[in-house]
Amino acid sequence: MGNTFFYRKAKQDPSSLTWKEIFSESFKSHSKSEYQHALAAGTVHNTATEANMLQKWDKPWIWFKFFKAAVGFVGAFYVLVVILGMTFPDLVFYTGTSVLFNMIPPLVMPLVILIFLWEMNIPKNMSIYECIAFWLIGAILSLVLDVVFKSIGAQFGYISGESTPYRAPVFEEPAKLVAIVLLLIFAKRNRKIYGITGLIIGACVGAGFGAFESAGYSLKDWLEGGNDISIILHQVMRGVFALGGHTLFAAPYGAAIALNMKNNKFSVNSFLNTDLIFAFIISCAMHFIWNYGMQFYFGLNIPGIITEILVIVILWAMLLWMLRKCLNQVVSIGRYVPGSGHGGALPVGGYDNRVMGGVSPSDVGVSFVKPKTGKLKVVCVNGPLKGHSWRAAEGKLTLGRSSSSIVRLPDSASSVSRNHCVIYFSGDRWKLKDMNSSCGTFLNNHRVNPDKSYYLNSDDTIYLADRKNVFKVMID
After folding, report:
1. Please, are residues 257 and 268 in contact by the beta-carbon 8 Å criterion?
2. Cα–Cα distance between 159 and 166 in angstroms, integer?
3. Does the first or last residue of the chain, that is N or C, have fewer Cβ atoms within 10 Å of its Cβ?
4. pLDDT by residue for the chain (476 residues), tens digit each?
C-alpha cells in the first residue's frame, strides 16, 4: 500500500500528521492520463468501496496545478488590462471587462482550497462535477439565508449601516451552517456521509459565499464610480487573503456535523457535540477579528496585515485538526483487502511483511474482507477498446497486442507488449501476473512485479503501460 505509513499515523496517532505529509505528492510532475484518472474520482470510471478505498486513494496534487494555471491566467489578464488602460483610458470595453475579471481573483483561492479538500476524499463518493454543483447551490443558499437573517436583525434594530461589518459574523456563520445542513440532507440520499464529506460540503458553502460576496463588492465599487486601479488592487488583495476566508470558516464545522451522524442520520449529538461547538466558536471569533482587527475588539494596536496572517494561521491549524479527525474515521472504517496493489504477492488470508513494511493489517484497518471468487469480467474504461468487455470463460484472460491474446489491443497501442499480462484463476482466487512487459502493468496505481502474482478484487483497476489503456475488474 503506497500510503501505508500515512494511514498508520492517521489511525494510531492522528495528531502526528503534518501538512508536509499531506502535500508530499503536490509538487511532482504528472502525465495527462494521470490528470484524467484523478479528475474522474467519484465517477463510475474511478470509484471506491470501503473495502478498497484505502488502496485506491492518491494524495492530492491537482489543486497545485489549478493554482498555477489560475494565477498565470489572472496575471496575464491584468498585464493586458494595464496595457489597454494606458493605451485607451476611456475605452468602455476596458472598464467593463476589468470589472468582470476583477471578480476572478477572489474565486481562485477558495476553489484551490476546495479542490484540495475534494482530493482528500478517500471514499471517492463525490465527483468534481457534484462538488461544483454544491459550490454554486451552497453560495445561493447561504447568501439568501444571510439576507433573511440580516433582515430579521434589522427589524430588531441589531444591525444598521455602520454596524453591519462587525456584526456580520452573527448572521453569516449561522447562514452558512444552515446551508451546510440542507446540503447534507440532500447529499445523504445517495451516498454515505463521512466526516470528509461534511468537510467538503462546508468548504463548498464557504467558498461559494466568499466568492460571490467579493464579486458583489467589485460590482458595488464600480457602480459607485470607483477607480479601476483601486478596484483591481482591492480584489487582488481579497483573492490573496481568501487563503483564510469563508472557506476555512465553514469547512471545519461542516465536518463536525458529519462526523457525528450515525447511520447517515442526524441526531441531537450531530449539533450538540464539542467538535462543532469549538469549531463554530473559533470560526465566528476569527471572522469578527478578520472584519475589524484586534484593536477594535481588544484595544491591541496590531497592524491589519499581521492580524490577518495570524487569523490565517489559526484557521489552517483548525482545518488540520479537523482533517486529522476525518482521516482517522475513514482509515478506521476502511478495511484491508489482501493483494489490492500492494506491490507484492500476498498469501490468501494473510499479509506479507516485505510488502507492508512490517505493518500488520490492524495498523491500517479494522478487519479483513472475504474476497469474491466468482466469475470475472474485465471492462475497458479508457483506450482504443473502451466500452468492450470480456469474461474469463476458461479461467484465464490474456491481454496484449498478440493475435493470440483474448483482450487484443491494436498495434497503435505501441507501449503495450505483445504478451503483456494474464489474469487467471488459481486455488480459490483470481490473480494478475505481468508477462515481463516492456512498460509495466499497474494495479490500482502501483506497478506490479513480473516475478509475482497479485490477488484481484472486484472494482480493482488495471492499466497497461499507462492510463491510455485502463481496465476495470468485476467479480460476481
Report:
1. no
2. 10
3. C
4. 457 678 777 777 788 888 988 998 899 888 887 888 889 899 878 888 777 788 788 899 999 999 998 888 877 777 776 676 677 666 544 455 555 566 677 788 889 999 999 999 999 999 999 999 999 999 999 999 999 998 888 887 766 555 455 678 889 999 999 999 999 999 999 899 999 999 999 999 999 998 888 777 766 666 666 566 666 666 677 777 778 889 999 999 999 999 999 889 999 999 999 999 999 999 999 998 887 765 555 566 767 788 888 999 999 999 999 999 999 999 888 754 443 333 333 433 333 332 333 334 444 333 344 555 578 999 999 999 999 999 987 889 999 999 999 999 999 999 999 999 999 998 888 999 999 999 999 988 788 888 788 888 888 899 999 888 999 999 88
User: What amino acid is encoded at 448 in this protein?
Assistant: V
Cα 114 to its chain centre, rounded Å, is 7
For the chain, which domains are there?
61-333 (no CATH), 373-475 (2.60.200.20)
Q: Report the amino acid identity of residue 425.
A: F
- Residue 262, judged by CB atoms within 10 A of its CB (0-12, 13-18, 19+), counts as exposed
Cβ-contact 124, 193 below 8 angstroms: no
Pair 48, 124: CB distance under 8 Å: yes
Distance CA 223, CA 242 (A): 23
Distance CA 285, CA 252 (A): 14
For 465, list phi and psi in degrees, rounded to 5. 75, -55
Which set of grid coordinates corresponds to residue 186? 440532500
464 in Cβ contact with 416 (< 8 Å): yes
Residue type at 170 in one-letter notation: V
Q: Contact, 47 vs 459, CB < 8 A? A: yes
**DSSP classification of residue 386:** T
* SS3 letters across 237-273: HHHHHHHHCHHHHHHHHHHHHHHCCECCECCHHHHCC
Task: Give CA–CA dist 466/44, Å, rounded.
Answer: 19
Cα distance between residue 143 and residue 212, in whole Å: 8
Our measurement of the distance from residue 141's CA atom to the centroid of its chain's CA atoms, rounded to an integer in Å, reads 22
Task: List, in sequence order, every beta strand (DSSP E) within 91-196.
Answer: none
Residues 258, 203: Cα–Cα separation, whole Å = 13
